[in-house]
Every structure is written in C-alpha cells, then in structure tokens.
From TrEMBL, chain A:
Tree of life domain: Bacteria
Coiled-coil annotated residue ranges, if any: none
Protein's UniProt keywords contain Transmembrane helix: yes
Name the UniProt record assigns to this protein: Formate hydrogenlyase
Family annotation (InterPro entries): ComplexI_Subunit1, NADH_UbQ_OxRdtase_su1/FPO
The species this protein was found in: Aromatoleum diolicum
Pfam families referenced in this protein's UniProt entry, alphabetically: NADHdh (PF00146)
The entry's keywords: Membrane, Transmembrane, Transmembrane helix
TrEMBL record, chain B:
Protein keywords: Cell membrane, Membrane, Oxidoreductase, Transmembrane, Transmembrane helix
Domain NADH:quinone oxidoreductase/Mrp antiporter transmembrane residues, every copy: 130-412
Segments forming a coiled coil: none
NCBIfam families: PRK06521.1
Organism: Aromatoleum diolicum
Principal subcellular localization: membrane
The protein, known as: Hydrogenase 4 subunit B
Gene: hyfB
Length: 315, 666
C-alpha cells in the first residue's frame, strides 16, 4: 500500500460522497428539461438532504432495531462500493478486499437489509415493496454478476481495479462480448437504480412503486441516509459502467498529476452518462410490474450471451 | 493412544449416554440437564480429536465385533477426519440446544429419544470410520434406522408416520444401490475391504457402473432430484434438533460417500461423471430453491433450501471431477475446496436455522408461516441469531455462505481452460444458473425471516411468545458464531480443507492461499482474485459507526414514535401484510411450469372468502405414483396365488416338484 494509493482511496470515497447527489441533481435537471418542465436547481438534492437531516425522525411504534440500523448499513455498503469501484484511479488499497463478486454481494447485502427493514413495520406497502425489490434483485443480481464475469474472463481477474486497468490498455478498441454485456449492464442499472422503465422514483402510486414503497416509513435522518445511499448507488453504477465499457482516462500510475487529469475526464463522462439516463427515462414508459421479469430476464440472457460470445470468439 | 482410539472412546461415550437414557426413561429433567449437555461435550471433544487427526497420518484399526471372521475394519484419514469435525462441531451446538428443547414428551419418552439421538450421532461417526463394505453398510443402516425412529418421534400423528415410511423406503432403495456399488468395486476378489477396492483398477465401463450406483445411492440420501421426495416430508416431521442434525449433518455423510467412492476408491475419474454431477446438482439446486421460495411451512422451506444446498455441493464436486479428469489438479482442488467449505458452512447455518424454527415452534406452537409474524420483538435472541443464519444462507458477505459461493464462482471462471470446446461453452451457462440460484436463495431467506420475525403478529396468541431458554440460546450462539468465524477467517479453514484435497487429488490451494497471510484470501494469484472478509467487515462497521457519529455531531438525534404511516391509510391491520403465499407469488408466477398447483379462489360474494393454494411437485405424480400403482398392481396379481386353502398350496408344491424333476431330467 503506497501513500498515494491511500490518498487516492480516501479521495475517491470523499469525492463520491460529496458529488453523488450532484449527479442525481444533474439527471433530474435534464429529465425536467427534456420533459419541457422548468428544472429544479442542480443543488436540489443537497437541500433535500439538509432538510431531512434537520427533521425529527418518526419511527413506527412497531419497529424493531433492524428498522433503525438498516439505513446506516445500506449507506455503509454503498460507501464501500464507491471505495472499491475504480472511478479515478486503479491504485486502490481497498480493492483487494472485495472483488467483483463481493461487489455484487455488497449490493445484495444492502438490498436484503432494506427489504427486511421494509417488512419490519408490518404495513401492506412495506411488504409489497420488499417483495418487489427482491423480485427485481434476484434477476438483476445474476445478470450483473454475468456482466462482470465477461469482463473477468477477458482480463483474467475478478478484481475490479485489475479489470479496468487491463481494459484500459486492451489491444481491442471494442470487445464484442463487452458490447453485448454493456447492453445487459444498462438494463440492470436501470432496474437496480429504480429508474424508468422498471420503477419511477418520482411516484407514490401503489400500482407502480418499488423503491418508494420500501422506504415509505422512513423519515428524517434515516430517509436522508437512504436517499444519499441511492445517489451513491447511481454514482457507483455509473462509474462502474464507465470504467468497464469506456475505461479511457482512468489513472493507473500513482502520480498526483495523473489523478488530477483523471477528474475532468470522469466529470465529462458522467455528465454525458447522466444526460443519456435522463433521455432513456424520458422516451420510455413505465412497464407493468409483471413485464419487469421479462425485461430483466432479457438482461440476464444478454449477459450469458456475452459470456458465450467471449468463449466462442476468445474476445 | 491413537486418535482413532480416542474417537472410538468418544463414540462409545455417546452410546453409553444413550443407554443411560434408557435407564431413566421418563426422567425428562435428567435427560435434558445431564445427558444431552454431556453429549454436546463429547461432540466438542470429537471435533478436537478430529482436527488433530486431520494433520496426522491415516490410522487403521480392526474391531472384532459382528460376525465371526468378519471384523470391522476402521480407518481414520483426512477425509473422515474432516467430516468427523463437521459432525462434532455442528453436533455440539445441536446437542446443547436439544438439552433445552426436549422439555416435555414428544410422543416418544425422553430417555428413548436420547438413546436414538446418540445412536444416530454414533452411527454417523462410524460410517465415516468404516474401511470395509460390511462395516459401512451396517453403520449406514443403523444411521437410517435410528434417524427413522427420530423422525417418527411424534408417531401419533399419521402424517409423520407416513413421512417416516417414505424416508425409510428411499433410504433402503439407496442402500441397495450402495451395496451393489461395493459389489462392483471389489471386482470379483471377494474381499470387501476398502483397501482392496483401492488396489483394483477397474475398466472404464465397470468404474462408471460403480460411480453411477454410488451417485444413485448416495444421491438418494442427499436428496438429489428426483430422489428428493422424502426430504421435504421427513425433515419437517422430525423434532427440530433432529431436523437440524439430519439437514446439517446427515446429508453430509452422503457427500462423504460420493467423495470416498469417486476420488478414493475409484482411482481414475472420467470427464462425463463430472458433467453428470454438475447437471444433477444444477437441476437439484434450481428445483430446491424455487420450491423453497413458495413454501408456507417454515420447516419445509428450510428442507427445500437444503435440497438446493446439496445441489450446489454436487456442482462443486462435479467441477472437481471434471478438472481432475483432465488432469488439472490444482483447479480441481479449488472446486473441491469450495464444495468442502460449503459442507461445513451449510452444517452450521442450516442447523442454526432449523433450531431457530424449533424455538419458534415451542414458543408459538405454529409451523405455518401464515400464522407467525413480529417475533423479533418477543424473541430477540432467537431473532438476531437466526438473522445471522439467514444472511449466511443467502450467501451474503462477510458470512460463511459467501466464501463458499465465492470460491465456487472463482473455479467456474477457470472452466474456459478446459480442453473441450463443448464444455467450455456449456459451463459458463451453468455458472449463470448458479448465480441465479444464489440470488433466489436470498429471496427465500428474506421471506423466511421477514414473515416469521418481522412485521406485526398475525395471530393474537403470538403476543405470549417467550424467548428461548438459556441452553437453547447457548446452542444457537455456538452455531451462529460458527457462521461468523467461518465467514471471517477463510484462510485457516482452507488450511484444514487442504489436507482433504491433498488426500483426494494430491493437490491443494493452501500453499497459495497462505502466501498472502491470514487476512486476504487469494486462491490462485493475488492480481487474479482476492477477498478479505475481515477488512470488508471492518470497513462496513467503521462506516456505520462514523455515519452514526457524524449525523449526531452535525445534526440532532431527535426521534419520535408514532403509529405506522402506510401512506396515511388508517385501518391498517396485521392481515394486510404479505403472507407467505403473497411473498412467494412472483416466484410462483415466473416459474409456473415447475409447480403443480391447485388453487381455490373465492368468489367476490363469499361471506367468508377462503383462498387456498396447494403446491406439489411434478415428480410425485410423474414418477412416484406410477411406480406405486405398478407395484400395487403387481402385488395384486401375485396375490392371486394366495388362496388360503391347504389343498391349493399342496398343489403348488406338487407342481413345483414335477417341474423340478423335469428340469433335472433334461
């Protein structure tokens, strides 16, 4: 572990924590513009977090400690995800502690805890949300794993940092298997981040809500942490996607200069990614819930096809 | 004294405790307070001796019991020592729990139960020590019979008797296959010791026959599809400590059998055996997990989850066979390490979960998920400890289930190095299916925990539920800490497993793993893959504590309690939560063709609407009932011979005599 590694590690986590809500704000802004509405300010998510932290937390009388600890666990999981996902640099001391499979495990851990917390109060919406979240999860999780597997097979490593490092120096400009995997990854990210067409973060309608139903009973600081964690998740997914499929510009040398150069590249990539996400959300309609398994099964099959493409073509 | 002698002494101690139980047949307090804890202490000692034996050379002994000139040959090598370790370590927790559990009669007097329980434990240990077919079969049958009596402990309930009979039947069909397998393995030498079987080199045809028979026989014990039907009946029927012992420990003796025959007694492995095990395991895992997600009885849910885990174990072993057949020994060691890790991990978490259901059953008298709920607040000890088991069982980091899953997925990543192109294509697809199974297991476990422990109590009587007694808690704590430790310290455990893989295939991954110290698990090369549960846990914990502290530091910590909000809906009752049926509904819909469903839907005008859904598996109707009908038909035809009149029987003898004379003459 080098000193600069430690610095880049800390920098990554702090930057992720600080700027993840900005990405959410950016996506919301673009979505509003694309839908011909006047947009909230870019800093709206920060104002929301500040407001929520200042409010009293209202906890249901029937809640067990799981309900109160879950937001912290979810937040911690997402912070660790941001720590192991190579966003700026691939020289990360935390990276050996958790590889791509552990990354999927981390997402699953967060999901299980938030689902258990939703069931904890014992309301109809809570259990409904938990059931739907687990439904999305059990299809999205293997699909994500298979996407990461295709990348692992190409680079002969499951460590995210090594994957990204070898992809950045790959002889191929575009791997055919990764192109297919990229589509699958996009599907999975939409589902996992509660985005249209799977879920709509801006609704409280019984028929459609998944993520909002899960966190219906949360308020105050607990809700703030969950919202922040959701931003972190979007940020992490975007960064992983960019790092896997567009790995150019990530610093792998441990000099501060390269790190500083990596920042604008990342910002530019995220800005474009956020706009594309807003575009996808605008031109698609929300699916019926029972079309969601088909959507995710498609993602899963695409990911498996990506694996097979790699095995067939060796690329 | 040799390790083997110590183990025999400990097994003898178990038998002795059982016999004492017979003397104090109805003295519940003595059986519970003295005999079961003593059994637990013996189990811990057994685990310790087994651990020591693991790092020593194999030992043999000849026990002059049984038939004249046919003594029991015993042998303690790495493989038996490892499984003895599993029996001892998991059995200790179960015995301690059982001490608190058998408070009142379960139909069978406690003393008798104590005898059956300890004979069961002792026979499992002896199965692992057996070094000839005779000793093995005697112990295997003792194991089947003692567990049959334990399953039918509550024999006054007809459905439990039926479950017990089914179990006995399948166990014996399996035992016949194992016996035939040994018959093939001794290769007409008439010498049934394992030493002789090892010395034989069978032709590929006969080796395959032996392997298929072993897969069938041990598969029946393990619950491989389609021989699984007894498992979801028998495991829930038994008292909970027995279910724990059967699911957590006994199923592993079948895994032991597969490993013993496949790697030790058969010297050469053929690649399609691996493919067979892989596909059987995959089908079993998928089948088990989908059924587990739609169950409405908590113990049946766990039983199906055991089927799933056995499937995963077979997948690991299959991968091991495949790699071994192609001479890739170190990769084979990786796959087998994953399987063996899962053996010990499953022993802990499944025992923990079954014991947890036992506590719930005692506290509420309810097994049906639809009538439970909200027990987290009434039974916090059981709730939190079961949560550990649930997380381990869902394969979540940093607990034990994840390490095994991680190692298995890692070994899948190497399958592209196999020389066969077709397998190269096929096996990544299997990896995908395994990932699906793991995710579905999480679904089933969230349902299991959420419906039992979270939410509001679905029945008024649940308000009186009491937490588990001290001894029960101690047993649960033992098993839960096992799940945590197995999850956090994979490197020492792999050092232990390494002895087994060295014995079976002459390779191991411990040397590679140890190179990076105990904190980091890197099974092949550091830049290829690594995982460190300790760092993982520390970072998550630090992040949790830091965020709690920062939130408190910069904002206030005010908290108010209020009735649940639920989008402002005022008339919220406990019946509006998802039931077990409701939670499993998406799975039922997505995997509809897998189930055989009968539904009774209420009409909108019913005063008392009743919704009922019965889910059965197709194998019962496609495979077992036709066989049962055919058997009955055949019996009826043969039964015509029975006329009940002596003249007719004399006629039979006369005809037989004539026919025999004709045969002799010609």
């Amino acid at each position: 572990m080098t000193f600069s590694g430690l610095v880049s590690q800390l920098l990554e986590i702090v930057l992720a924590l600080a700027f993840a809500p900005l990405l959410t704000g950016w996506v919301n802004q673009w979505r509003a513009w694309l839908q011909n509405r006047s947009a909230p300010g870019l800093l709206q998510p920060y104002r929301l977090l500040h407001k929520l932290f200042n409010k009293d937390s209202v906890v249901a009388e029937t809640a067990s400690p799981i309900f109160r600890i879950a937001p912290y666990i979810v937040f911690a999981c997402m912070a660790l995800v941001c720590g192991i996902a190579p966003t700026l640099s691939t020289d990360l001391p935390l990276a050996p502690a958790a590889d791509a499979i552990a990354l999927v495990g981390l997402f699953a851990l967060a999901r299980v805890f938030i689902s258990l917390a939703a069931m904890d109060i014992g309301t109809s919406f809570g259990t409904l949300g938990a059931r739907r979240e687990m439904l999305v999860g059990f299809l999205a999780e293997p699909a994500l794993l298979m996407v990461l597997f295709s990348a692992s097979l190409i680079t002969q490593s499951t460590s995210l940092a090594n994957i990204v490092e070898s992809l950045a120096h790959a002889p191929f400009a575009i791997y055919p298997s990764l192109a297919v995997a990229g589509v699958a990854f996009t599907f999975v990210s939409l589902a996992e981040n509660a985005r249209i067409p799977v879920d709509n973060p801006a609704t409280h309608l019984e028929l459609t809500m998944i993520h909002e139903a899960l966190i219906l009973e949360y308020s105050g600081r607990h809700l703030a942490l969950i919202e922040w964690a959701a931003s972190l998740k979007l940020f992490a997914y975007s960064c992983i996607g960019l790092a896997l499929f567009f790995p150019w510009g990530i610093a792998n040398a441990d000099t501060p200069l390269v790190m500083i150069l990596a920042v604008p590249v990342l910002v530019a990539k995220l800005a474009v990614g956020g706009m594309l996400l807003a575009l996808i959300e605008t031109i698609n309609a929300k699916m019926r819930l029972f079309r969601v398994p088909e959507f995710l099964a498609t993602a899963f099959l695409l990911a498996v096809i990506a694996l097979l493409v790699h095995v067939l073509l060796g690329a | 004294m040799l390790h083997l002698d110590w183990i025999l002494v400990l097994v003898g101690a178990w038998l002795g405790l059982g016999l004492i139980g017979l003397l104090v047949l109805r003295n519940t307090a003595f059986v519970a307070r003295v005999l079961f804890p003593a059994g637990g202490a013996v189990a811990i000692a057994l685990a310790a001796v087994a651990l020591a034996a693991l790092f020593d050379v194999p030992e043999t002994a000849v026990l002059v019991v049984g038939l004249p000139d046919l003594p029991f040959h015993l042998r303690l090598d790495g493989l038996s020592a490892f499984f003895l370790l599993v029996i001892g370590a998991a059995g200790a927790g179960i015995s301690i729990f059982a001490a608190g559990y058998f408070r009142h009669g379960e139909g069978t007097p406690p003393g008798l139960l104590c005898l059956e329980y300890h004979v069961f434990l002792a026979s499992m240990a002896m199965v692992l020590l057996a070094d000839d077919a005779y000793a093995f079969m005697v112990m295997w049958e003792t194991m089947a019979l003692s567990s049959f009596f334990l399953v039918t402990a509550n024999h006054r309930v007809p459905s439990i008797r039926q479950a017990g009979f089914l179990y006995l039947l399948v166990a014996h069909v399996g035992a016949i296959a194992i016996l035939l397998c040994f018959g093939v393995l001794q290769a007409n030498t008439g010498d049934y010791t394992f030493a002789n079987m090892r010395a034989q080199s069978l032709s590929p045809l006969w080796a395959s026959a032996a392997f298929l028979l072993a897969t069938f026989g041990f598969g029946a014990k393990a619950g491989i599809v389609p021989l699984h039907v007894w498992l979801p009946e028998a495991h829930p029927a038994a008292p909970s400590p027995v279910s724990a012992l059967m699911s957590g420990v006994m199923l592993k003796t079948a895994i032991y059998g597969v490993l013993r025959v496949g790697f030790d007694l058969l010297s050469v492995q053929i690649w399609w055996w691996g493919v067979l095990l892989l596909s059987l395991g995959l089908i079993t895992a998928l089948f088990g997990v989908t059924f587990s997600a739609v169950q409405t009885d908590m113990k049946r849910l766990l039983a199906y989850s055991s089927i799933e885990n056995i499937g995963l174990l077979f997948v690991g072993i299959g991968l091991g066979v495949l790699f071994k057949a192609y001479g890739m020994d170190s990769l084979s060691a990786l796959a087998l390490t994953a399987a063996l890790y899962h053996v010990i991990s499953h022993a802990f978490f499944k025992s923990l979960l079954f014991l947890g259901t036992g506590s719930v059953l005692h506290a509420t008298g309810e097994r049906s998920l639809g009538k439970l709920g909200g027990l987290m607040r009434r039974m916090p000890w059981v709730g939190w400890l079961v949560l550990v088991g649930v997380l381990a069982s869902s394969g979540l980091p940093p607990l034990s289930g994840f390490v095994a899953e991680w190692l298995l997925l890692q070994s899948f990543l190497f399958t592209t190095e196999l020389p066969d192109t077709f397998l190269n294509m096929l096996i990544p697809v299997i990896a995908a299916a395994i990932a699906l199974v793991a995710a579905l297991a999480g679904y089933a476990m969230v349902k299991f925990f959420g419906v039992i422990f979270l939410g509001q109590p679905r029945e008024p009587k649940l308000a009186e539920a009491r937490d588990a007694s001290r001894l029960e808690r101690a047993g649960l704590v033992w098993l839960a800490s096992g799940c945590v430790l197995l999850g956090l310290f994979p490197v020492p455990i792999i050092t232990v497993i390494d002895r087994v893989t060295h014995l079976l295939i002459g390779a191991g991954i411990a040397d590679t793993v140890r190179r990076n110290g105990w904190i980091l698990l890197a099974p092949t090369a550091l830049d290829r893959a690594s995982y460190s549960p300790v760092i993982f846990l520390v970072v998550v914990c630090v992040a949790v504590l830091l965020s709690i502290w920062l939130v408190r530091r910069f904002y206030h910590g005010r908290l108010r309690f209020a009735p649940p909000w639920d989008c402002g809906f005022p008339a919220q009752t406990a019946r509006m939560q998802d039931t077990a049926e409701g939670f499993g509904q998406p799975i039922r819909q997505i995997f509809e063709p897998v189930f055989r469903m009968q539904r009774e839907l209420p009409s909108p005008f019913d005063d008392k609407p009743v919704y009922k859904v019965i889910i059965e598996d197709h194998f019962w109707h496609w495979l077992y009932l036709p066989i049962a009908h055919a058997t009955e038909l055949f019996a009826r035809v043969v039964g015509r011979l029975q006329q009940g009149r002596i003249a007719i029987y004399l006629l039979y003898s006369f005809v037989t005599l004539i026919v025999l004379l004709l045969v002799v003459k010609s």
